[in-house]
Design goal:
single chain; 77 residues; mainly alpha; 3 helices
Length: 77
Amino acid sequence: MQNPGPSEATTTIRGIAEALAGSLSADAVGAILSEHVPDTTGHCGGCRFPTTASPVWPCRLWAIADELHRIGPTRRR
């Protein structure tokens, strides 16, 4: 899966983040941001699948979590 282009990042990623804003805790968003970091090859260290290659960092999940962080406070659990 390829990383989103600029227009996708501003529309799709933002839309997903807005839809999830009320359902993910700040701790969950922080965990995603801290686990999905680049490895030594520039791929996402948090996206490890046994049958496919990890996406190039930043992965879409990190991009969504980053947008959630930018949107502001999420619901605390």
